[in-house]
Amino acid sequence: MKLKEMLSDYQLGEQPNWDGEQIITGITDSSRDIKDGMVFVAIAGFEHDGHDYIPHAIAQGAALIVGEHDCPEALPIPYLKVANSRQALGQLADKFYKHPSGRKRVIGITGTNGKTTTAFFLKHLLEQQGFGVSLIGTIYNEINGIQYPTPNTTPNAEKVHELIAASKDDFVVIEVSSHGLTQYRLEGVAFDYALFMNLQHDHLDYHKTMEAYFEAKALLFDKLKPDGKAVVNIDDAWGLKLAQQLVSKGVSVITVGHQEDAALSIKKMTNQDVTLDVSGEMSALNPHMPGEHNLYDIAMASAVIQDLGYPLADVTGQMHSFAGVPGRYEIVHLKNGVHCVVDYAHTPEAVSSILTSMHKDGAERITHIFGFRGNRDASKRDEMIAASTGQSARLILTTDDLNSIPEETMRREYADYQHEFAGIHKIDVMMDRTLAIQRAVNEAREGDWILVTGKGHEKYKTAFALPTSSDKETVLYLKSSEK
Q1: 364 phi/psi in degrees, rounded to 5
Q2: Mean pLDDT over residues 171-179, rounded?
């Protein structure tokens, strides 16, 4: 693409060394990735300011600098000043990759809980209909059948457009985070379907209020294509509010919930299956993953499948071959009928839902292991403790990602909870996560259940005593050591 084509929507003004015929070879916000002919977009980040790396980008061969600051003096290449560099990155990437989302059927999924599982459900069900499906999400990105690691739920705008452009599949399913929306990581992406799962207490260290958190999630629905559709869980109060707002704007909304007038009306929900009424036709769906939260996820995914014209009656059969979701209600069966569940749950509602599902699966005595993340939303911690102590017999607080918080600081906070609940509920503290899991396994009685939450599929960032790198790996290591 020529520079004059990339900047056709911008006013560059007179600048030295301006050559509209310059061929642009790529775009990035990292000066380390610059190669000859690329555009460097300088973004003021939370820890570093990209404007400080302009000289390095030029030395690496950048053809254009985009930034929010006034143009540095005597730059040897053109400089485009914009009001918002993050937004400009998405707009320029969309143009560079020739509007890739317009050439694909793109599905975005947002909400506090359920994004990953619903994305995996949707990918599987679409593949069962014969479609190729790319996935951009929390656990990994999968493009044309090849999996790539991902550092964030939603990559930056340039990477999102690059991945969509690289996909040769029919559909692209994207997990959409609130951070990704407010930071313009989806700028320029147009969606055929946008799903709203729920809104629960999380990320208030970033958004400050639930209303602001809701408004961030709602940004996804401004990105629907003219004929795009919203799929909304109206059993969630925030979902109901969103659906009403979207209808008032003339957006096509597919509602899912227990209400009689929901497009997919839930008539029955057990721990294993959910019965949906669509225009008087009943369909019982079983995702083969127990838990009410998973039933909502399969209902939301099925709403898309049904709208595409495929029968819901086939969904349960198609889910028989579903391989599961890494780090989501993964069960490892240990000796003496002891069961250990590994899950990513990191909100009070998610913890409560998992524990309820375990009780419905037959768990009578549950030991719950989890920890708090340093420098993250501390306002939900009391609710997390309450959700756990309300349904587990024993709680072991342990290390999650400490980030920059000293371990001793977190240990003191855990000690405060021990003191607060003394005589009411058993709370132990073991800062080594692997040893906490080992203790729970060693002390479990026949028929006991163990729940380990918070990290799910994630690798440990801390070196622990056992030679393992994730919760599931720790459980499997302990299982292999059983005699």
Answers
A1: -105, -40
A2: 94
